[in-house]
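=== RUN LOG ===
request id: a7f3
mode: sequence -> structure
chains: 1
length: 219
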Amino acid sequence: MLHREVDEQVVIAVALQDEENQGRCHGSQVGRLRNVDSISILGCDTAGILGLLPEQKHTTVIRMLAYGASADQVDEIARMGKSTTLEALVRFCDAVETLYTRNYLSRPTPWDLQRLLQKVETRGFPGMIGSIDCIHWQWKNCQTALQCDYENRKCQTSIILEAVAGFHTWVWHAFFGVAGSQNDINVLGQSLVFNDVSRGQGPNITYQVNNTVYQTGII
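=== RESULT ===
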């Protein structure tokens, strides 16, 4: 019990110090979330007792997302009720989607593409507008009737996520939901990443390699 009380006092002290620092540091991630959802605001109850800390909620939610943990699994660390934890998870995801979708999941504009080309050229990859790859997300509770379709080469049921990211981890394309039994080529054939290029409507960009001018970027 003593260790728990000391831990809580330390967490509160750190949180209050962060509140003071945010007055001098603009644009913090917690501050941005606070503008979108009140879940990131430290409040008090009617007795004047501090409620759950924003950092406490964010840490719990990120741990659940990172490790695929349930609300019960993070209870020892979070010290939050199950219903509160699940509510924090939903509201955190909604806030992140509202805050970052326009910037991080929108297709790059011509200005964005030129900026990407300039950056990658200095790294020795002229014309590369992003890196594409697929990752398998394990589907632990896959229905028995679907296991044959979703079983990958490691004999695990999974769902495939295809994503394109720039040099500074800007993910501007995501395609999720393909059965884990399929390979990367099959996923690429179903995604929309090259639809504009195949229709001849690709972005108008210009770069040069070995004294040859190209107008189609590569991934």
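=== NOTES ===
Residues 2-102 form one domain.
DSSP finds nine helices and five strands in the chain.
=== END ===
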